[in-house]
Amino acid sequence: MDLTGKLLVAMPGMGDPRFEHSVVLLCAYSDKGAMGLILNKPSPDIRMSDVLDQLEITPVEDAAAMVVHFGGPVETGRGFVLHSQDYQSHLHTLLVTGGFAMTATMDILEEIARGQGPERALMMLGYAGWGPGQLESEIARNGWLTADASRALVFDTPARAKWTAALESLGVDPVLLSADAGRA
């Protein structure tokens, strides 16, 4: 089973407040572990203009207003841009199943600042990472549901509505979810 390009939807009672009601797009998945970006945790204190100012990049107005998200608890000072596949960095872009891509190099920030980056993009600080077998164990313990990712859910759905929308894409009513796992 390859979960690359799939969504992880946090179940109630996950136990880790950093992931409460999170929706994560898995950008890489293998027997060596997994890496993903939380899609629905906008940072209340950091804007793209702050990031670009720190990097001494002058942005166009639209780029400066871009929201920065908490992408996960690993390397929170490092930036990642989840974007549409219409843009590929000449340095390094990871193509993700489902029409998504991720770039973590400075050139994408410079392109976004000039208004010439990808058609769709989300800026993240940090990422979520799992070691070998860790994610599978969390899924087995009822920590996560998996769902297909869509561009509409990832890029068009407001952050506060993504968790509910991801559950509804599975036919799950969030009100009926239980934090308890069971075996028949």
From TrEMBL:
Organism whose genome encodes this protein: Roseobacter ponti
Family named by the database record: Belongs to the UPF0301 (AlgH) family.
Annotated PANTHER family: UNCHARACTERIZED PROTEIN YQGE, UPF0301 PROTEIN YQGE
InterPro entries named among the record's database cross-references: AlgH-like
GO CC, one annotated term: cytosol
The name this protein goes by in its record: UPF0301 protein G3256_14495
One protein family per Pfam: DUF179
